[in-house]
Fold this sequence. Notes:
The structure holds 2 protein chains of 2 kinds. By secondary structure, chain A is α/β, with parallel strands linked by helices. Chain A has a single domain (6-310), classed as Rossmann fold, CATH 3.40.50. Helices cover 41% and strands 10% of the residues of chain A. Chain A contains 10 helices and 7 strands. In chain A, strand 4 (177-178) and strand 5 (181-182) form a beta hairpin. In chain A, helix 1 crosses helix 2. Chain A is globular, with a radius of gyration of 19 Å. Chain B has 2 domains: 3-203, Rossmann fold, CATH 3.40.50; 217-365, Rossmann fold. Chain B has helices spanning 27-41, 57-60, 65-69, 81-93, 112-125, 155-159, 172-185, 233-245, 264-274, 289-300, 323-329, 333-343; strands at 24-26, 45-49, 74-76, 97-102, 135-140, 165-167, 189-194, 201-203, 217-220, 225-229, 251-255, 258-260, 277-284, 310-314. Chain B has a 7-stranded mixed beta sheet, sandwiched between helices. Chain B has a 5-stranded mixed beta sheet with strand order 9-11-10-13-14, sandwiched between helices. In chain B, strand 6, helix 7 (172-185) and strand 7 (189-194) form a beta-alpha-beta unit. The longest helix of chain B has 15 residues, at 27-41. The relative contact order of chain B is 0.13. The A-B interface holds A 61, 63, 92-98, 102, 104, 106, 111-112, 114, 116, 119, 121-131, 133-134, 140, 152-153, 155-157, 159-160, 163, 319-323, 325 and B 46, 72-73, 77-78, 80, 82-96, 113-114, 117-118, 122-133, 162-163, 165, 185-187.
Amino acid sequence: MARTSPRTMRRLFHTMLKIRRFEEKIVERYPEQNMRTPVHLCIGQEAIAAGVCGNLKKGDYIFSTHRNHGHCLAKGMDINTLMAEFYGRITGCSRGKGGSMHPVAPECGILGTTAIVGGSIALAVGTGLASRLRKDGRISVAFFGDGAADEGIFHESLNFAALKKLPVLFVCENNFYATNSPQTARQPHDNIAKRGESYHIPGFQVDGNQVLTIYETVKKAAARARAGKGPSLIECRTYRWKGHVGPDCDYERGCRPEKELRDWMKRCPIELFQGHILANKIITAAEINHFIKAIDKEIATAVKFGLESPLPDKTDLIKHVFFERE
Amino acid sequence: MPWTKVFIDQDDFAATPATDGLRWITYRDSLREAQMQMLQHDARVFILGEGVDDPGGIFGTTVGLCEIFGKDRVMDIAIAENGLTGVAIGAALAGMKPIFVHMRMDFLPICMDQIINHAAKWCYMTGGKVNVPLVVRSIIGRGWGSAAQHSQALHSLFLHIPGLKVAIPATPYDAKGLLVSALNDGNPVMFIEHRWVYDYKGHVPEEIYAVPLGKGIVRRQGKDATVVAISQMLYEAVKASKALAAEGIEIEIIDPRTLNPLDEELIFDSVRKTGRLVIGDVGCRTGGVGAEIASRVAEKAFPFLKESVAIVALADTPSPASHALEMAYYPGAEQIIASVKRLLGNNKVSELAPVPGEPTSILFRSR
């Protein structure tokens, strides 16, 4: 941990804060029913997006899932177009055709986002293959959940990436639930990180609420991938505070034990890291307040941009079914 | 298994040696040549598929390409169809132009998540910002008892999915020209071949050329009835046309060449002239492309119809194995003839003349 510079630590903290404040703003505004798109919030899981993307260059690719907001922000996506997309506006990143589940930002390596569980895994292997064939030096990250580790495509993708030594990082965010099905109901062993072993892929199981641990682990894996030594599998153990979809907590509906959520909330990734960097004088309380003010201003601007942007025209419906050359 | 000797009446379509200086090659060699030339001319193109580098080379269509271009560009892969389709899509998103080859069309259902949920949707759900230049080659493998899981013609399934293009070439000329277009289109293209036409020869220029997606062609002109013939049914329609001509009935044969986009205007124009429409398909009837074409004609060209539309297609059963059942399963020239005659008010099917067997390759000298 000591190797991470103060500058990087502040950056990681800022990213986590930004994701948290962004998601909390959605919780606040969602009941207005102007965001007519299913939102899958990542509150409680911010450390993974920050820790992983903190190691990536602008041209590196990431593929995310229905729970993608944090990944997109951490990768540097424009917050205005992301918010406008949630509001279904023509100024949205996907011109109002993707919604919350399909953001895109090719300029920062987000070539699209899939909401079919497991889909992100093969796509990242595909961009990894393109990078290897073209020798462009980029790496690709597949974000996916513990539910996706049950899919056949997880194994198909790991097998191929290992065989071709592709520059891919498989980042499993294990929040222990696939929608409402607990991991124990789906998997005979709690061993997602070890599933790479049979493909000779190094696996790491890390605390998904400790951003520095994630950052340092991914740093090594990314260097390995860039050196042409092949993929790594990183299982980050974490917990989502909100329900599978929507702004509410699902323990109220009996989906999970309330105590389980309360215990995890005591291990808030942002509070954990904030305590660490304050104690080590990496940051001051005043600087944190300044971060929060600036982030909130940015988010407020994005909400305004989204709400004031025009909706798509009816004639936009049939556009973009196919790519057309100019 | 003698795939190359399955029940094809070679005499009907024997190659006519080129006497006029035109170059004649088989459908199989046309596909191979298209891929070879595209690999040479476009560094983004690569081929992946189970067995693409083996001595058989996907029924000869990829033979020797791995030796020329290496294993990175002609890539043998694991039998993990869905995952590898996702990999191909990912590579396409990053700007590569993969050709994913399946020896049997029956393997495509394994890839449906990636084809339907990902490839077909990507351009739309990214608001047109990212496209998927992917070609999926697959082969309809009729006959020799291949049965229910090795001889399906599933082209119609893909018509229902916005975002997919569907090319179904019947001739060597179109096999190359459409493959070139598919690779340069920038969209996911389901490229559907028929195993029975692999040995047929036709004129294929040596240089790279493109047959545009969405442009059908009149293969034979006629005034009495329009026969839209899909894939291998083209050859059955040609046979039928000879038998009917002997009785003074002239059918117009249309090969749509691509099913999405579909050149419906070409079909409407022909129906305007003939007033009668028969659709010959190589797939099952219900929910098939025959029904789609019939509905479009009913919606947009109804005043031109003198009779109801006839569809010649497979019965709604899985493909059988026994030769006897295959014979009953696959319709051909005789059913086309019977349908044409029925539309012309002549139901004396029992008086049909035998189907003649002259070479028909003359048809395919040009577009």
